[in-house]
Amino acid sequence: MTLDEIFAIRDEAKFLKTFKAWREKRHSKLGYDRLSEGEQRLIRIQGFVWEVNGNAFQGFFDNAHGALAHEIHADLRLIGAKNAAALLKRAISAFPSGKVPRDAEQRQDSLERALKKKSVAKLFDEINSEFTASDPDRLSDLVWQYVRQHRGHFDLAEQLQPEPKPRIKFGKPKRSTKLKDYLEYPIWMSAEDVQGAGPGWERPVVSPKSDVSEELLKHARKVCDCPFILFKIEGFDDHGIGQWNYEDDCLINILLWDQGKWLDLDELGGLNKTFTFVAVPSILGKKNVRLVLKKGKLFADRAKP
User: Fold this and answer.
1) What is the pTM of this model?
2) Which of 5, 61, 116, 124 is deepest in the core (most CB within 10 A)?
3) 279 in Cβ contact with 229 (< 8 Å)
4) Where are the alpha helices (DSSP H) in 31-176?
5) Is 37 helix (H, G, I), strand (E, B) or coil?
């Protein structure tokens, strides 16, 4: 049966049964890498749901599907599973720089270290309870709505051509950045996948130097990462950095420069009042974007006009 014939089926129960059989046969015959965009997306979402329901978020990151955490987050957002995506994003934020390592050993070690922090252990308890207490988005319904509405995602002949390489220019990767590095270049990206670098390495965005541009964000989406940006603390002479979460319009993985080194909020013992940050680079052309870190929170939301 051809894909056109399958999508022509109007009886929903018959369509679901026939489509599942078609997809499983292709997966068995071709393997994951040769499947279409849509087929790969369904496999990722299915693996995520199985792992979290069976082994909680910790088990998900421990196992093979955890390597695809960023792709799965994008998948959930694409199909409209906003609540599940938000829970996964909160879990991802526990990793250094908000980036989940592809390598299984690095990923497991990072998670083990993170869970030693009381705030992270509490976070995982919360999101596990929220996810398992009920289906947050009626995921099964959303998956089949996605399938019905995106016929082209399941046909390799209809896949989009690769996007042209971005015109963004990056500087030389660096293992340990300091405040002076960010004062020279206020936007940095992870260099983990750059040859000769590794986990924890960063590279500056040298062009455009002072704007989190749409082109930079397209690059960030492609590599499943968020740019680090420099900010000033309003009313003080101090600086900090954090990752600009372009999906949720907020700053995550916040670090403050204190006595010659970067410290996260846990290392600072938490902040006992609300602070306002002012981004040094412009964001999508807007200068002096203000971000509010409320008392007890680990992320800073964009200030309301």
Assistant:
1) 0.56
2) 61
3) yes
4) 37-62, 69-79, 82-92, 104-114, 118-133, 139-149
5) helix
